[in-house]
Design brief:
Elements lengths: L1 H26 L4 H4 L7 H4 L2 H10 L19
């Protein structure tokens, strides 16, 4: 039952975490995430099925990484 209650919060956390990665790269000048459709609140674009199941079962998991190209950053320091 606890798993059922924690599922919506887990989904929201994963989505906003990966969206934040894409937005940070976009603000720094890289539009790779935007061009690949990853600047969205759609959970299907962000959730890796194996990583999500692992998170539910083992309390450790991952999401799909947001693509970036460091050569597109405005200031590459």
């Amino acid at each position: 039952m606890n798993l059922l209650y924690s599922l919506p919060g887990l989904l929201v956390a994963i989505i906003f975490h990966e969206l934040s990665h894409g937005l940070a790269a976009y603000v720094l000048g890289d539009n790779t995430a935007k061009n690949s459709g990853r600047l969205t609140l759609n959970p299907i674009k962000h959730i890796d099925p194996i990583g999500f199941i692992s998170m539910l079962v083992f309390k450790f998991g991952w999401a799909k990484p947001v693509p970036i190209n460091p050569f597109n950053f405005k200031n590459r320091k």
